[in-house]
């Protein structure tokens, strides 16, 4: 289903400090994904990282840099390109083009009419 918040991203100035804080305070499972980034499992998840608890979402930490300079919510869509066209038609602006994320899917970012940065997520087709 599209249009739901499916992910969040938190910027970090010091990844080890941020992941330690959220792991210890909230019990999140944190999986390093590269320099300056880590996945945050906030709920039980399947092999694709999708939460198995209804209504739960997982997230990530990223080095604080554009476009992730403040917390960002990410909305699931069927087609990022078509969604970005609708965003622009209604006064929003593309910030980052559709970019692959491993074999999991694609991400893009836009700013809305209030200058908030919002992510878009399109799952890759499952085999």
Can you characterise this structure?
This protein has 127 residues and is α+β, with helices and mostly antiparallel strands. 17% of the residues lie in helices and 42% in strands. It is built from 2 helices and 8 strands; from the N terminus they run βαββββαβββ. It has helices at 15-26, 80-89; strands at 5-12, 29-34, 37-41, 58-63, 72-76, 93-101, 105-111, 117-123. The chain has an 8-stranded mixed β-sheet. The longest helix is centred in the N-terminal third of the chain and has 12 residues, at 15-26. The radius of gyration is 15 Å and the shape is globular. The chain starts with a strand and ends with a strand. The model has no long low-confidence stretch (mean pLDDT 92).
How would the blueprint of this fold be written?
Layout: E1 5-12, H1 15-26, E2 29-34, E3 37-41, E4 58-63, E5 72-76, H2 80-89, E6 93-101, E7 105-111, E8 117-123
Parallel strand pairs: 1-4, 5-8
Antiparallel strand pairs: 1-5, 2-3, 3-4, 6-7, 7-8
């Amino acid at each position: 289903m599209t249009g739901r918040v499916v992910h969040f991203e938190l910027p970090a100035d010091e990844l080890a400090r941020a992941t330690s804080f959220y792991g210890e305070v909230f019990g999140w499972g944190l999986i390093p994904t590269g320099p300056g980034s880590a996945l945050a499992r906030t709920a039980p998840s399947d092999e694709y990282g999708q939460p198995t608890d209804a209504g739960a979402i997982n997230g990530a930490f990223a080095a604080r840099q554009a476009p992730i300079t403040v917390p960002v919510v990410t909305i699931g869509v069927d087609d990022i390109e078509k969604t970005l066209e609708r965003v622009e038609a209604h006064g929003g602006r593309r910030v980052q083009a559709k970019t692959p994320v491993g074999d999991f899917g694609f991400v893009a970012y836009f700013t809305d009419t209030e200058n908030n940065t919002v992510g878009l997520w399109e799952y890759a087709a499952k085999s």
